[in-house]
Amino acid sequence: MAEVTAPRGPSLTDVATLAGVSHQTVSRVVNRHPNVSDATRRKVRAAISELDYRPNAAARWLATGRTHSIGILAGELAQYGPSSVLMGIQDAARSAGYFLTVVTLKDYSEAAVDEGLSGLLNHGVEAVVAVTPHVSALEVLAKVQTSIPMVMVGGGGGIDGDVSLDQEGGAARAVEHLVELGHRRIAHLAGPLDWVDAQRRVDGWRRVLRAHRLGDGALYQGDWSARSGYDAGMRLDVSDGTTAVFAGNDQMALGLLKALRERGCSVPRDVSVVGFDDVPEAEFYEPSLTTVRQEFHDLGRSCIDALMDRGARSAADAGPLRLVIRGSTGPALPH
To answer: pTM for this one?
Structure first.
């Protein structure tokens, strides 16, 4: 059988010939070197576009020792929050001249985390971002030492370079809003408590209740899904004076709204509901959902800034969380 070979694509030399510049000049443009005039850069880019030249990553790695690749160690990308964080990191990385290599964890054991990190390092990544919201994975990562920069999203300071959004503060703002509306018995529908974000949101809820001497409200357990929100809504005890629920994410709030509607409870007249995340559909819920907005792209940019050693290493750097008030919250009615 005859050997089949792929046709040779245009080379760096072909680009240099068409642009009328040296091979080294084309290399500087491709590698974003600053010492190239704007006119020359435009000429080279026009030649690259005309020839549809694609740099050979393997050759560039051998020549420069750099892959311009950032590794992502990820889990639970089916959830809105982690997937949105990944998109934010990807946009920021692309703007900085990097692309992503993603490894998803099959579980959160020490062996799985070690295997994932080894896979990324074997691909020559220059840095790692861990988007692993589970407590067990974060505990393993807190002990890891690597020769390349690593940041951890939402790790609570376990690793140098931790980049977080203020989950506790965002939750507290949601509950303060309910208190300001006159609600005194406020329940919480929490996400899985092996997630750091879920723990922080519980902390924020409790902090506000205690600050106002309201006592502990009822705590219901969900798994981030609308189904778990619906199930919790069917169990919600309103006979104890509960007039508001802070849901740990918008999907659970969606299920909660459906359950309350089926039970004949009017939202917000009988029960006010606040969510968390501000998913794109939140304003189209019935009623439209009051929720806490997370700026995931700001978080992604903070991750890349931290890796570039620009000092973005705190919750404030990642941007504040903002309460978006819509139709699902209203004043508490006297009982």
So the answer is: 0.77
